[in-house]
């Protein structure tokens, strides 16, 4: 099943989210408007806003409040991407030039600051202190994850625990926060809020594991992700960590050198080591485990087409890596 089919129960609301994003990106500063238009035209899965909407509706919310929260989550995600592309010196994202490639690092960073601060204005508009508290904690965790990932870059001694900590902070916390905002809008019980947040947490970890797997398995024409992008940036992701742990000494040393130096010219050798050491099925198995945990977290949530969509998202994510 394709993602638009899974998200069909909230398709109309996602259009309203996009309209809200366009409206809230407007500024008196022309450069911000230019970068904002560039961001919107780049599109994206809108997965995080969809999680807000699906969580809210699965828990019985009947108001328009989740639309504002969904746009807020996408603004935070967008701000992190603008800053990430500067840190990673990325020139392309989703097949388009990045904002930093077009307007320079200064313009991209400052536009990211605008988008980030606008998200907090939108949180205030919700009138819920609980929303502010959840998202303040979430954005702080994301920032910690970004810094920890920066420290990990070029370090071949990063172990699985350090790697998982990064994706918990950098990716899973935003998935979790989005689901929790949906539950807050639904005025769900504490147990239901905890359950839906656990779903988002485990889905977020599984999502990043598959993303990191795609760096060594994807068809660039299909995924839009070039092979070896993470390696070129010196990122020690789980396929590399596992290959170094169980591979032959010469394989481990080859990968260590590639991580230290961002040696994309050794990609074929690294791919061979990743394949021969079982690093791909190892990473996939961990993603599958977190997907099962995500499904289990929803066991006490009432059945509905919205819950069905949340469950289907766990399967869709795993299929990205096949």
TrEMBL record:
Q: Which cofactor does it need?
A: Mg(2+)
**Which Pfam families has this protein been placed in?**
polyprenyl_synt
Please give the InterPro entries that the UniProt record associates with this protein: Isoprenoid_synthase_dom_sf, Polyprenyl_synt, Polyprenyl_synt_CS
| Gene3D superfamilies associated with the record | Farnesyl Diphosphate Synthase
Q: Which UniProt keywords apply?
A: Magnesium, Metal-binding, Transferase
PROSITE patterns the record matches: POLYPRENYL_SYNTHASE_1, POLYPRENYL_SYNTHASE_2
Top-level taxon in the UniProt lineage: Bacteria
Matching entries from SUPFAM superfamilies are given as: Terpenoid synthases
| CDD domains for this protein | Trans_IPPS_HT (cd00685)
Q: Which family does it belong to?
A: Belongs to the FPP/GGPP synthase family.
UniProt protein name: Polyprenyl synthetase family protein
User: Species name for this entry?
Assistant: Sinimarinibacterium thermocellulolyticum
Q: What is the lineage of its organism?
A: Bacteria, Pseudomonadati, Pseudomonadota, Gammaproteobacteria, Nevskiales
